[in-house]
Amino acid sequence: MIRNTPRDLLEKGLISEAQFNQIEPIVSGKLVSVFYELRTMLYLGVVLFTGGIGILIYENIGDLGHLISILLLSVITLVCFWYVFTKGFPFSIEKVKPPTPYFDYIVLLGSLLFISVQGYLQFQYGLLEDNLGWSTLISAAFFFYIAYRFNNLGILSLAITALASFWSISVSPQKWYSDNFLETAHLHITAIFFGSILGALAMVLNWKSIKKHFTFTYINFSILIFFVGATAGLFEGNLYLIYLLLIYAGCFFAIYYAKRERSFLFLLYAFVFGYVGTTYLMVDLILDKVPELIFYYAILSCGGFVYFILSYKKFFTRKA
Amino acid sequence: MRSAYNIIWLYNLEVIKETKRWLKARFIEEAQFKTIVEAHPSSFYHPNFIIRIIIFAATLIGLSGVTGLFALIVLDTDQIVISISCILYGIGSFVLVDQIVIKNYKHYKSGLTEALIYHACGFTIGGFAGLIDFSILPLLLFSVLVLSFAAYRYLDLLTTAVAFFTFAYLVFYSFFSLDGVFQQIISFIFILCFSTLYFLSKKIKSKSNFAIWSNNLVIVESLSLLMAYLAGNYLVVRELSVNLMGIVIEGGQDIPFAFLFYGFTVLIPIAYLYFGIKNKDVVLLRVSLLVLACSVFTLKYYDGFDHPEVLLTASGIILLGIGLILFRFLKTIRNGFTREDLISEKWASMDAGAFIISQTLGGNPITVDESFQGGGGNFGGGGSSGSF
Predict the structure, then answer these.
(1) pLDDT, tens digit (0-9, with 9 covering 90-100), for A197-252
(2) How high is the mean pLDDT of chain A?
(3) Are B387 and A228 a contacting pair at CB < 8 A?
C-alpha cells in the first residue's frame, strides 16, 4: 500500500531529495534488514544451548567427561564475560546503547551459563544445601548486577522473577511438602506486599532518574503480582471487601501510570482485574439471587466500558 | 463490491503510520512529520492496539449479554426457527457493523468492529449449519464464503487465516471422501493447489488497485507456502496415511512414494531459502527458516530421539554460530541485505523482548535445582510464570 509513498511525498514536496534516496530503497525492498531474523536466531540459540547443556550436565554427573564439560562451560562463560567487559561501555544511569547488535545475547548467554555452573558447584560441593532459597536470592542479586551493569532488560526481568520466586519459596515451603498446596497460607499476602514494595522502589528509582527505561518492566511485574495476589485473596472469600479495595487501589495506580506514561497495557490490567473484582461483588450482592440480571449486567458493563474509552479518547490519543 | 472503508482515508492512515516509523528511525524531522500528518487527513477512529483489545473484550462481554437474551426468546422453538433466527441475527450484526459502526461512526479496526464481525460470522455460519443439519461439505463451502467475505470487505486478518484453513480442509475433505486413487494423490493436489494460490496472491499483491489488501495477501502467501511444504513433509504424510487412511506400515516397509517425500522434506526448505535470498523476499525467507526447523525435526523424529539434550545443545550452538557469523558478515551491505535495524518493526519493542525472556528462561536456574531435590514443589512454576 505504501510502496509508492516515498515518491508521492517527494512530488508533494513533503520530503527532500536526500531523504527520498535514503528511504526509497528500504520501502521498495531493494535493501532488506535481517536484524530481527538474526536476533531471533541468536535468542533461540541461547535458549536451546543453555537448556540442553543444563540437562546434559546433570544427567552425566559422576562421569569422566563431566569435569571436562564443566571446565569447558566455565571457559565459555569466561569468554563471554571477557567479551562484554572489554567491549561494553562503562556503567551509566542512563540508557546505554549496546556496542554491537549481538552484545545483549552474549550477556544473556554468559549470565545463564554462569548460573548453571554455580548451581552445579553448589550441588556438587554441598554449599548452601539446606537453604535452596538463598541460592535463588544469589541468582537474583547476580542478575540485578548484570542488568544494571550492562543495561540489559531481559536480564532484569530474570532478576525480578528470581527474586519473586525467592519470596514465594521462603514463605511457605513446609506447606508444599505436607501436600497442602491450596492452603499456601499467606502467599497472596506476600504477593501483595512484594508487588507494592517492588513498585514503590521502581517509582523511587524512576524519580531519582536511575535507569528510567527499566521502570516499565518493574511496574509491569509488580502490578501483575499485586493484582494476582489480591484476586487470589478475593476468591478466598473471607474479608473479600478488603481485597476488593486493594484491587481498586491497584486499578487507580494502573490508570494513573497508564495516563502518565501513555502506556495502554496498564489500562488493560486495570480493566481486567477491576472488572473481575466488581463482578465478584455484584454476584455476591445481587446476581446470586436473580440470575436473569446477569445478561443485563453484561450489556450494561460493556456499554459502560466502551463509553469510558470513547469519552476518554482525548486523554488516550495515540502516542506521537 | 468493495471494501467497507474509505480508500483515501485508508491510504492516508497507512502513510501516517509509515512516516511515524521513519520519524522514529530519524529519517525525517518532527516538523516534517507534522506537515505530512496534516496533508493526510483521515477521520477513522483507529485506537492503539491495547485499547483495541479492551474494546474487543468489553464488546464480547456485552454481546454475550445480548446473545443470552436472544437465546431466552428463541430457545423454546424448534431447530429450523432457531437456525433461521441465528442467520438473521448474524446478518443483522453484519448490517450493524457495516452501516452504523463503520459508515456512521467511522470505526476502523477498533476492536468493536472485529468483535461484531466475528460474532456475525459465527452466527451466520452456525445458523446455516443447523439449517442443513450439519452436513460437512456445504457447511465448509458456506464457511469459506462467509469468512472470505468478511476478510475481503473488512480487511480482517484473522478471518483471512481462518478462511484459508477452512479452504484447505475443504480441499482435503473433498478428495479424501472420493476414496481410492484420489486419497493417494492428495499431497500432490495440495502442492499444486497451494503453489498456484501462492503465485496468484503474489501477482494480485503487485497490482496497485489491490493495495489495501496487501496484509491479507501476505497472510495467504505465507500460509500457502507453509501448506505446500506440509503437504510434502514426510512426517505429516506418513502420520496422516497411517491415522486417516489406515495404511499399515510394517517393519522394513514405507509409505508409497517415500523417497519423493523425503526429497520434498529436504529440498523445499532449501528452495525457499534460496529464492528468498535471491529475490530478497522477506516472506519467503521467514517461512523458509520455519520449515527448515520442521525438516530437522522430521528427520530427527525417525532417526530417534535418544539424546534430546545433545540435539538441543548442538542446534543451540549451530544457531548461535550462524547468527554471530551472519551478524559479522552483514556488517557491510551484501546483496541488499544488512544487519542494521533500518525501520523498526511495529511489534518489536524491547519491553516485549524482556517479557519473552522472562517467560521462557525464567525458571532456568530454579528448575535446575528442582530436578535435584526431587519434589521441590512449585519452584519452577513460581519462577517461570512471573505472577505465580
Answers:
(1) 999 999 999 999 888 889 998 999 899 889 988 888 888 877 888 999 999 999 99
(2) 82
(3) yes
The answer on A126 and A59 residing in a single domain is: yes
Residue A225 and residue A265 in one domain: yes
Q: What is the pLDDT of residue B350?
A: 60
Are residues A264 and A134 part of one domain? no
The answer to whether residue B388 neighbours chain A at the CB level (below 8 Å) is yes
| Residue ranges per structural domain of chain B | 45-177, 181-304, 310-348, 354-388
The predicted complex's ipTM stands at 0.79
Report how far residue B178's alpha carbon sits from residue B181's, in angstroms, rounded to the nearest whole number.
Answer: 8
Residue A130 has pLDDT above 80, yes or no: no
Residue A195 shares a structural domain with residue A289: yes
In this structure, how many other beta carbons lie within 10 angstroms of the beta carbon of residue B268? 23
pLDDT digits (tens, 9 = 90+) for A75-120: 999 999 999 999 888 888 888 888 888 899 999 999 999 888 887 7
A78-87, B171-180, B316-325: segment of lowest average pLDDT = B171-180
- In chain B, which among 92-121 make CB contacts under 8 A with chain A? 112
Provide DSSP, B40-92.
S----B---HHHHHHHHHHHHHHHHHHHHHHHHHHTTS-HHHHHHHHHHHHHH
Residue A51 and residue B10: Cβ atoms within 8 Å? Answer: no
Domain encompassing residue A194? 172-320
| Angle CA B23–B346–A89, to nearest 5 | 70
Given a contact cutoff of 8 angstroms between Cβ atoms, the answer to whether A198 and A221 are in contact is yes
pLDDT (mean) for B210-219 = 91
What local confidence, expressed as pLDDT, does residue B94 receive?
Answer: 95
Best interface-test mutation with A: which of B55, B326, B331, B357 has the largest number of A CBs within 10 A? B357
B364 with A267: Cβ contact below 8 A: no
A277 inside domain: yes
Q: Which helix (H) or strand (E) holds A53?
A: helix A35-59
Helix residue spans in chain B (DSSP H): 7-24, 30-39, 49-74, 79-95, 112-131, 136-154, 157-176, 181-184, 186-206, 214-232, 234-244, 258-278, 282-303, 308-329, 350-361, 364-373, 379-385
Q: Residue B182 phi/psi, 5° resolution? A: -65, -35
SS3 of A32, please?
A: strand
CB contact under 8 A, A164 and B383: yes
Is residue A147 domain-shared with residue A220, that is, in the same domain? Answer: no
Q: Do A19 and A44 reside in the same domain of the chain? A: no
Domain total for chain A?
3
**Grid coordinates 497442602 are at which residue?**
A180
**Angstrom distance (rounded) from CA B94 to CA B75:** 22
Asked if A119 contacts A135 with a C-beta cutoff of 8 angstroms, the reply is yes
Q: How is residue B322 written as a grid cell? A: 550462524
